[in-house]
Design a protein that fits this description.
By secondary structure, the protein is α+β, with helices and mostly antiparallel strands. The chain is built from two helices and six strands. The longest helix is centred in the C-terminal third of the chain and has 26 residues.
Length: about 140
């Protein structure tokens, strides 16, 4: 019995006898394992800089003090303040010059809907609804 007491050590929390190398105390359940070594801090993540949205100083460009952002007019090329919805020089609307380049809403076989009158657009919509109803009726009769 004395050999067991000589080889046993004491719990630092409750002073109970424990076996050498025991992972926890059987009386107070204190963790007796050595504390893990702290993990090294992760290296900072370096994200690439987006040249379109990054500040000028971050890109190494001289910052324009007091300069407000502008948008270029597609018709005359004049610089306009962001708050303006039409060009201050020629009066054209924002992106108005792009409308002449390509149709905004063109349906094959019908044409550009933006150049049609309201009555023509309504007639096309009505025709599409009638064609859909006829198609659904035919399908229900065939599969019905």
């Amino acid at each position: 019995m004395e050999d067991l007491l000589e080889t046993a050590s004491r719990c630092p929390h409750c002073r109970a006898s424990i076996r050498p190398g025991a992972p926890w105390c059987t009386l107070c359940h204190a963790d007796l394992r050595p504390a893990p070594e702290p993990e090294p801090a992760p290296a900072p993540v370096v994200r690439p800089v987006d040249p379109l949205t990054a500040p000028a100083a971050l890109l190494g460009l001289p910052a324009q003090a007091g300069a407000e952002p502008t948008w270029p007019c597609t018709t005359c090329g004049a610089a306009n303040p962001i708050a303006a919805t039409a060009c201050t020089a020629c009066g054209a609307g924002f992106l108005a010059g792009l409308r002449d380049e390509a149709p905004l809403l063109e349906i094959p076989g019908v044409g550009d809907l933006t150049k049609m009158s309201r009555a023509q657009r309504l007639g096309i919509a009505f025709g599409a609804v009638v064609a859909f109803i006829v198609l659904m009726t035919l399908l229900s009769l065939l599969l019905g």
